[in-house]
Amino acid sequence: MKHTRIVVTHYGGPDALQVLEEECPEPKNGEVRVRVLAAGVSLPDLMMREGIHPETPRLPFTPGWDLVGAVDRLGDGIAGLELGETVAALPISGAYAGFVCLPQRELVPVPAGLDAAEAVSLVLNYVTAYQMLHRSAKVRRGQRVLIHGAAGGVGSALLQLGRLAGLEMYGTCSSRGASVVADLGGIPIDYRQRDFVKEIHRLTGEGVDVVFDGIGGPHIWRSRKALRPGGTVVAYGLTSSLRESRLASGRSGRRRRHRFRGIRIFGLYIAGGWLLPGRKRVVPYSIQWLKRLRPALFRQDLIAQFDLLRQQKIKPLIAHRFPLVEARQAHELLGTGGVTGKIVLVRQPVVG
Ligand SMILES: NC(=O)c1ccc[n+]([C@@H]2O[C@H](COP(=O)([O-])OP(=O)(O)OC[C@H]3O[C@@H](n4cnc5c(N)ncnc54)[C@H](OP(=O)(O)O)[C@@H]3O)[C@@H](O)[C@H]2O)c1
User: Fold this and answer.
1) What atom of ligand 1 comes closest to residue 240's alpha carbon?
2) DSSP state of 137
3) What is the pLDDT of residue 143?
4) Residue 70: helix, strand or coil by DSSP?
């Protein structure tokens, strides 16, 4: 049986994504073959395609951090899974394919009846948001938080989960995202028109308790200025390294691609955040490292998100559904910016 797989053939723009038709993979001992129903498209995928994310695999590789699919074939030694059962996983790479083989321990059961595209939005974005809120920042009802990129994938998840936690929320976004941020309970701040540090102090007086900063670099410094004394910046992304280097434009870029450059700069800002006066902390967050160190927490937190979705307490924003063969168009769309919510590659082309 043949399947489709997307492969990054060289580090670069969306044209680096090639569509491959090949034999379906066979599960090895302890593995399960999953028929992918939905694969998320996220900024970390784009950063890996450009070769600037610390998790970037060697070439050629198949991108795709997160997936939801149906159990299709069991390798030797598998027990406790039924054919056709819906499961989710965070393989970090490999999800842009018709079928993937994964170790059983990587699979988390998905409750019946959920939309696959909505369910896959929870795997990376909502677990990231939930763990930052409740495991890194340990937020309390009534606290004030600032969410950068609040109309984006992780940002909109932070708003929905922050509302459930009873937080007072401010969210930076471009003008296109303002109504989404307001609808989700945040006070929008147009970061292109206003200085968010001044705006936060104008609106709150002494500043916020927590800032969630996925922009990275010198931006972490500015986020720290928006804190009240005793506050915390949770630093979790490097959106700026993709946008500022303009690599997503498809031009090969003269500067060499450094997988760990952003991380080193990140480390400096975090260390500086601790050394400077003002009782303000900068703490890093990484879903992949927390999952590697505490896999049971990832599983527990993802199951909790599925439960919230089942109870309709959260509603992931789906920006666009593309068929798998249009992965390149999906990357082009996310790379241009202004996307509200999550882009998802789905199994069947959407008609109409
Ligand atoms: N540490 C982790 O475990 C982890 C997990 C998941 C994601 N991440 C990171 O989180 C970040 C966000 O990922 P995502 O998938 O949510 O991306 P996304 O959906 O593209 O959202 C990013 C948002 O940021 C906005 N933005 C860009 N520059 C901004 C700025 N200077 N100030 C305020 N907002 C700005 C964009 O809005 P406009 O396009 O309208 O400007 C967009 O809405 C990425 O850096 C990603 O690598 C980290």
Assistant:
1) 28
2) S
3) 98
4) strand
Q: Is the CB–ligand 1 distance for residue 152 below 6 Å?
A: yes
The two structure tokens encoding residue 229: 């004394």
Under a CB-based contact definition with an 8 Å cutoff, are residues 95 and 278 in contact? no
- Higher-scoring residue by pLDDT: 80, 217: 80
CB of 239 shorter than 6 A to ligand 1: yes
Q: Does residue 318 line the site of ligand 1, with CB under 6 A?
A: no
Answer whether 187's CB lies under 8 Å from 171's CB. yes
- Does the pLDDT value for residue 295 go beyond 50? yes
Question: Relative to the CA of 219, which ligand 1 atom is closest?
Answer: 31
Assess whether the C-beta atom of 191 lies below 6 angstroms from ligand 1: yes
Peptide bond into 349 cis (omega under 30): no
Between 62 and 258, the more confident residue is: 62
- pLDDT of residue 333 exceeding 90, the answer is yes
Q: Is the pLDDT of residue 255 over 50?
A: no
Q: How many Å apart are CA 244 and CA 254, to the nearest integer?
A: 13
**Beta-bridge partners for 211:** 146, 233
Reported as a pLDDT band with limits 50, 70 and 90, residue 337 is confident
Determine the Cα–Cα distance for residues 63 and 85; give it in Å rounded to an integer: 24
Task: Show the domains of the chain with their CATH numbers.
Answer: 2-120+295-346 (3.90.180.10), 122-289 (3.40.50.720)
Establish whether residue 54 lines the binding site of ligand 1, counting it when its CB lies within 6 angstroms of any ligand atom.
Answer: no
Q: Is 237 in the pocket of ligand 1 (CB under 6 A)?
A: yes
Q: How confident is the model at residue 279 (pLDDT cuts 50, 70, 90)?
A: confident
Q: Determine the pLDDT at residue 283.
A: 93
- Answer whether 154 contacts ligand 1 (Cβ < 6 A): yes
Report residue 208 CA to chain centroid gap: 24
CA of 235 to the centre of ligand 1 (A): 12
Atom of ligand 1 nearest to the CA of 155: 16
Residue 97 in tokens: 């394919």
- What H or E segment, with its residue span, contains residue 264? helix 261-275
pLDDT of residue 217: 86
